[in-house]
Amino acid sequence: MWQRQLGAEGQLEVIARGDEIARLLERQRQLEARFAVARVAREHCAQRRDRLVEPTGRAQLLRRLQRRAGLHLRGRVRAGEEEYAADHSPQRHRRSSAFDRVRIIGALLWPSSNVSFRHKALAALLAAVAGAFGAHRIYLGQRLWWLPLAVSLVMLPLLAGVRNWYQSPAFFVLMIPVIAGFIEALVIALMPDERFDARFNADSDRRNRSGWDAVLVAIASLMVGATVLMTTIALLFQTYFEHALGLPR
Predict the structure, then answer these.
(1) Interhelix angle for 2-53 vs 55-87, to 10°?
(2) Residue 139: how many other CB atoms lie within 10 Å
(3) 106, 117, 119, 207: which is deepest, by most CB within 10 A?
(4) Is 208 left (phi over 0), alpha (psi -120 to 50) or beta?
C-alpha cells in the first residue's frame, strides 16, 4: 500500500536513508570499541604509575639510578686520571717537544705550506728556471721537494776542476733534474685550470684564469728543454763512443 503511495523515487530515497543509518550505526560501534580499548589502556597505565609511586618501588628505582650514576662517574674519573698521567708523563713531553721542533723546521724549510693561492704560470716558470733545485715543488707544496735539490748539490761540487766537465758522469746525473724540470714546466703550463686548482688550490677561493702567460712559458719550456735534451743526448753518445774507441778527450 505505502509503496504505491511513495512511488519509485520515494522507494529509492527510503533505501538510501536506510543505508546511511546502517553506516552511522557501524561507525558508532567502531568508536565505542576504540573508547573501550583506550579506557583499558589508561587504567593499565594508572596501575603501573601507582606501583612506581609506592615507597618501595621508588626507593628501588632511586638506588638503581644512583648505582648507574656512580659507576659512570667512577669510570669518568678513572679515565681522566689516566689521561692526565699520559699527558704529563716525561715521555709525552719529550715527544711533543721533538714534534714542535720538526714543525718549526718544516715551516722554515717549506714556506709553501702558508701560501694561500698558487699561480699556474708562476709554478711552470719556477719549474723551467729552477726545476733542478726543486723551487716549483716548494712553491706547490709537493712532497720530495728536496730530492732534485739534493742531487744538484751533490753533483755540482764534483764538476769543479774537471777539464771536460760536460763529459763527466756527474754532468749527466745533474742533467736529470734539469730536464725533469722542463718536462714538469710543460706539464704544469698545459694543465687545465680546473684541474690545477683542484689539486693545488683546494683551500683557496681564488681560481686561475690562464692566458698568454702560461702559453709563453709552455713554448719557452718546450724549446729550451728540447735543446737541452738533444744536447745532453749528443754529448752522452759522444762520450760513450770516445770511451769505447779509446780516443783521447
Answers:
(1) 60
(2) 21
(3) 119
(4) beta
What is the rounded distance in angstroms from the CA atom of residue 152 to the CA atom of residue 174? 6
Find cell 684564469 and name the residue. 209
Looking at this protein, which amino acid is placed at residue 187?
V
Kindly state the cell numbers that stand for 95.
715527544
Is there a contact between 151 and 175 (Cβ–Cβ < 8 Å)? no
All 3 cell numbers of residue 158?
Answer: 764534483
Q: What is the gyration radius of the CA atoms in the chain, in angstroms?
A: 44
Quickly tell me which residue has 728543454 as its cell: 225
Encode pLDDT of 211-241 as tens digits.
Answer: 899 999 999 999 999 999 999 999 999 988 8
Evaluate whether 178 touches 132 at the Cβ level (below 8 Å): yes
* Whole-angstrom distance, CA of residue 41 vs CA of residue 44: 5
